[in-house]
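**User:**
My hope is that you can spare some time for a protein that puzzles me. This is the protein in question:
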Amino acid sequence: MILSEDYLQNLWDKTLAHVPSAANCAVVLEGSIAEGFGNSSSDIDFLLIADSDADLPTMPSLLFLDGRRVEVRTRSVRQVAEQFSALTSATHGDPGTIPEDLLNRCQRLLGSFPLRHPDLVAKVKGLMSFDDFRSTAREWWAHHARQSLRYALVLRELGQEAEAAAWTEAGLLQAVKSWAAGRGETYLEPKWLPMQLDRLGADPLSARFRVLASLDGSGLDPAAYVTAGALLSADLGVAGAASGSEHLTVARADGVTTWQTGDRVHVVRGRQDVFVLGDQAARAWRALVFGRPLGAVLSAAQASGAPQAGRLIAQFLRFGLVKAAWKGEGPIVPALPLAAPPGAVTPPPSAARPIVAVGGAAVGGAEAIDLVPVPARRFSAAGMTLVWSNVLVENAREDLVGALDREQWSVAQLSARRMLRFALRGVLSAYGVNPLPPDSEVVRALSLLPAEAHTEEMRAEARCLETLTIASVAEGGAAVKRLDRFVAQVRHATGAYSFPSSFDSSDGWRQTLELGYDWLRLGAHLDADLPIDEASDLLSSGGAQPHVATT
């Protein structure tokens, strides 16, 4: 230790004045100072062990004494026993499933220095063999090293050499931590690794690691660094991460589904997040065949018209939309212990507006993998409502034309207002507004939209159209032309510029059903509210009219 026992005993006496309930507890010093590391800035970590079966709090108390930060944690004997038992049980399965905090807490106690009631300290430490713990720590680090190194090989295969080198650095550190743990240096915190290696003494393997500890210091280019890292890791005892691509395959990610509306490809993650793919990203996505070698998948994606397929597939991996796997051993799940938790990355939401078009979500470019900035259920509901709003616009226009033909001016005026409001339902849906406000408020609800030139123009025109009067053939004809121009403007903004004339012909109605069916399938999958009850019949019929025979 870098501090004397007398100093620590004296500091504990001062601590006890603030923690009177600890008078009968055993006390140990744990952490970096107890392990022989530490410096003048290191915390003083006291663990109190009560000879009871009480549920003592996990959260530490912080004190500031003698210019030091003092942490006081508590455990009962029962809690310590359960802690060691949980680690022993986890050890019999996959070492990668052992929680980091559990391993760390066990190690800190086993490596602690007794200050009060050493008999009780010896009793609780005797609940786990240090040799067993050393073996567990070695396998735990080896598991994480293997996963990191395999992921580095995946990234190198995809042409992401800088990222591959970064994961090789991580894997090498984990591999040498595994090697050191097998020799008794089990303290988990990586920042003390140089001192751990010093304490183990000169060794060719640790000397090689010091040269390869970082890409910058190695003198190698990224590709050579990945290869050298895999070789050294194998020599350090981490098997199963040999350099080469024959073991790398593509695997399905749980909870990820693909949905296409028109030509637009959407990928839904965990029934929550929607990613929309640009044309090249969609080609790369369609080239993914689960179980095939990664190299073959990459070649197929590039041949399909996605020259940046390696970068795109790497993004799919980062976002958790697909997984890489090691043949015969399942998915590769890299993690950095004592760092950020593992898991899929969620990028910033897309800034493309409007959010939803009839053909799918707005996308930022050919290589885009954009996160749609609304939840999946609301996205699908907005898309269904957008399509249905356009159907209602067609229906209202038909009513308007019919009323004008019979000079039913009041009916025509009501139909014109319905046509306007249905068009505005589509505008609001395109910006992700769902549920919609009542029709009587849709004009004022345009204030919810971002202040952009085309939305300001829509607001002004909508306010004028809301007050249209129709009392003659001339006013009726002018109203139809003005409403048609407005609908065309709205449809251009929402990707519905080629929306079929739903009620003019059977072909127009068939096209309308086809547009709606893709959205309905996605909405039904996400349990979104359908725009009308009859939509469920369209789903059950597979997109066909329920009473008309198909040929």
User: Anything to note?
Assistant: The mean pLDDT is 89.
